[in-house]
């Protein structure tokens, strides 16, 4: 069973949550969802032109994890643009800088890592094992 992904540090929240082709109502378009941390990866690497290692450090993930996030984001954007779909930015596993952890629903101090690992749920087999 895969572990719950850790929060990715995000420094920027987009003011716009949806992009779509001009002239077509959103209700008639299929959407591609871009996670907030995927947009952050695109912003850091492609817009700010930082090195991947610096991007990974800012998002508090390993370089290979950053690479996977970036590749996934680029693929989604390419698919949406080439097939005329809307792009919706929402969701994901992220914390806002030294501010708020969306998943833990609490404030995070400067330099404090977000180590959210999900909520442990006891099953009946756990109770009988004790």
Q: How is this structure best described in words?
A:
The structure is a single chain. This protein has 130 residues and is of the alpha/beta class. The protein has one domain. It has helices spanning 36-47, 52-59, 63-83, 124-129; strands at 8-10, 18-19, 31-34, 86-89, 94-96, 100-101, 106-107. The strands form three sheets. It has a three-stranded mixed β-sheet with strand order 2-4-3. A two-stranded parallel ribbon has the order 1-5. The two termini are 22 Å apart. Residues 116-130 have low confidence and may be disordered. This is UPF0251 protein Swol_2090. Belongs to the UPF0251 family. It holds the Pfam family DUF134.
Output the keywords.
UPF0251 protein Swol_2090; disordered C terminus; alpha/beta; globular; 3-stranded mixed beta sheet; UPF0251
In short:
The chain is of the alpha/beta class. The protein contains 4 helices and 7 strands; from the N terminus they run βββαααββββα. The protein has helices spanning 36-47, 52-59, 63-83, 124-129, and strands spanning 8-10, 18-19, 31-34, 86-89, 94-96, 100-101, 106-107.
Summarize the topology:
Elements lengths: L7 E3 L7 E2 L11 E4 L1 H12 L4 H8 L3 H21 L2 E4 L4 E3 L3 E2 L4 E2 L16 H6 L1
Helix pairs in contact: 1-2, 1-3, 2-3
Query: What percent strand?
Result: 15-25%
- Uncertain segments of ≥5 residues (pLDDT<50)? 116-130
* Backbone CA Rg: 17 Å
H/E element sequence: EEEHHHEEEEH
The total tally of domains equals 1
Shape: globular
Mean pLDDT: 81
N- to C-terminal distance: 22 Å
Family: Belongs to the UPF0251 family.
Organism: Syntrophomonas wolfei subsp. wolfei (strain DSM 2245B / Goettingen)
Protein name: UPF0251 protein Swol_2090
Pfam family, one: DUF134
């Amino acid at each position: 069973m895969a572990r719950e992904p850790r929060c990715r540090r995000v420094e920027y929240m987009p003011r716009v949550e949806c992009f779509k082709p001009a002239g077509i109502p959103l209700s008639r378009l299929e959407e591609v969802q871009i996670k907030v941390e995927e947009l952050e990866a695109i912003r850091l690497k492609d817009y700010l032109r930082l090195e991947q290692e610096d991007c990974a450090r800012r998002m508090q993930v390993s370089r290979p994890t950053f690479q996977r996030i970036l590749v996934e984001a680029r693929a989604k954007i390419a698919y949406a643009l080439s097939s005329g779909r809307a792009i919706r930015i929402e969701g994901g596993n992220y914390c806002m800088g030294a501010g708020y952890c969306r998943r833990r629903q609490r404030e995070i101090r400067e330099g404090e890592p977000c180590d959210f690992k999900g909520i442990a749920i006891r099953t009946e087999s756990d109770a009988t094992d004790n």
